Amino acid sequence: xxxxxxxxxxxxxxxxxxPTNDMAWFSLGTNLHATGSWSEAAEALRKCVxxxxxxxxxxxxxxxxxxxAGDADAAAEVLEKxxxxxxxxxxxxxxxxxxxxxxxxxxEPPKSSPDANAAAEALRASGTFVCKRTGKPGTKMESPPxxxxxxxxxxxxxxxxxxxxxIQQGTKVINELRLDFSLDEDQETYDRYMYEFLGLDDDxxxxxxxxxx
Length: 213
Description:
Serine Threonine Protein Phosphatase 5, Tetratricopeptide repeat, mainly alpha, 2 domains, YggX-like, 69% helix
């Protein structure tokens, strides 16, 4: 059985055992999306965002799955709702990703807050610490949250407030997915959620690690 197939089986059991577990539905949808099971992925991800509208990445993946499934109208509706949710939370990276997805199907993306990037850059130029994930002023961490190049990058670019938000979300991930850190797979699952929450995709992680080598 492939790695994704094992995860799909595991998270499907968890989601069906507790239909209110939004993290289980998200994990199921993410793995179904990775295997190209677009319609099934969309079904799981829709349950996730219905339970937790604040799951910005869930909206993004739901829209992407619907596009791949050939339902552009449903995708546009989902992405517009997700864009509004993510914008209200300051989740800039999912906002931009959803704008790109809308553009890819010929839909006009919703207007973001005016000149948000320019405002963030002006704040940085004034010496104010601005979180890379949210684009909002925050408190710079006193030290990296963990060892290694990724931890060092987070310490320099992500606000303490954003990191504390992840700690709360990470606790939910651990509890709802019943992670056991003695298992490499569960540590990888936790790390994957952390990177997604903080807006670090594989390309950005590779860039950070390469710069430190």
